[in-house]
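A note on notation is needed here, since sequence and fold are reported together in a single record. The reader may check this reading against the record printed directly beneath this paragraph.
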Amino acid sequence: MATTTQAEDIEPTPAAPPAGPKKHADVETQGLEKVTDYVEEQEIGELTEAISNIDKVLVKEKEAKAQRELELAKVTIKKEEVDLIVGELEISRTAAEKILREHKGDLIKALHILTD
């Protein structure tokens, strides 16, 4: 009858994975994350600059439009001419006034543009 010793009854525990490769992978992952973060920050900076430029252009366009509206409001137009355009071409009074103002109150030019 074979007797076993206590050491033989204990099953060996599996060895822990080697620490070297895991640490190396962690370092590579951290390095990759740093590079990715840098690239993302660069892209965000470029997008922010582009949005800022678009906002500036929109503000300038809005200011130019407001300035144009002020200039058009200064133009004197005749009520009879507006009534003629509205009656004959069946457009809104606002559109008739605007087209007359854009052509400095010249009825002939306004009618020419509206009928082309």
About this structure: Helices lie at 6-9, 19-74, 79-89, 93-102, 107-115. The chain has five helices and no strands. The mean pLDDT is 84.
